[in-house]
Design goal:
The complex is a heterodimer of chains A (117) and B (122). Chain A is an all-beta fold. Helices cover 0% and strands 45% of the residues of chain A. Chain A has no helices and eleven strands. In chain A, strand 5 (46-50) and strand 6 (56-57) form a beta hairpin. The relative contact order of chain A is 0.32. By secondary structure, chain B is mainly beta. Chain B contains no helices and eleven strands. In chain B, strands 2, 4, 5, 6, 9, 10 and 11 form a seven-stranded mixed beta sheet that branches. In chain B, strands 1-3-8-7 form a four-stranded antiparallel beta sheet, with no helix packed on it. Classes of the chains: A mainly beta (117), B mainly beta (122). Chain A binds chain B through residues 33, 35, 37, 43-47, 50, 58, 90, 92, 94-101, 105-111, and chain B through 44-47, 50, 57, 59, 61-62, 95, 100, 104-115.
Amino acid sequence: EIVLTQSPGTLSLSPGERATLSCRASQSISSNFLAWYQQKPGQAPRLLIYGASGRSRATGIPDRFSGSGSGTDFTLTISRLEPEDFAVYYCQQYGNSPPTTRSGSWTFGQGTKVEMK
Amino acid sequence: QVQLVESGGGVVQPGRSLRLSCAASKFTFSSFGMHWVRQAPGKGLEWVAVIWYDENNKYYADSVKGRFTISRDNSKKTLYLQMNSLRAEDTAMYYCARDGGYSFVFGLFDYWGQGTLVTVSS
């Protein structure tokens, strides 16, 4: 099973600043299928970024969110933080289907909290 | 806009059973794989189970294999999770989520419901 490790655990920033979140995989992710989700308190997660190397934005996601990376190292960048961007962000590997013991199940990182400084 | 509404959560004693439901609308339910994903209080996300769009394939996380059963009724546009032999560690918010693949399952969760809380406690 692929283990995803996100860093930092917490990021303290001010509105307007740039946020850089890291997601490292324990082994190379097949086809670089890596997704990012945003979760606000009391809400369900929301898909932000997906696709090979995490480069595609989901419907309605503003272009200040972008993803990059390949192999085992991936990054979510928020170019200029808006007040509504303060939340917890999770990375997730997918694409290995079906999720058997051999191919591994779909896993999430432990999350990075972006808090207002 | 895709809508997913979970129900059936509650407080249940260890060893007992519970069935969750997820009512889907505003998309062609029978063309998409569907998942259950859970989140223990204050913790991260854990994929639980998936069912293919045509019900032909079902897979489970090791933590629930043999105890939970995922099913669907495409005529009712509803997803289910039958949870048996519940344990304290099954306490979590349970979300249903649509798979992002059309007639194929990728393991990408593109739409989520608001969740239903399951508490396993004596």
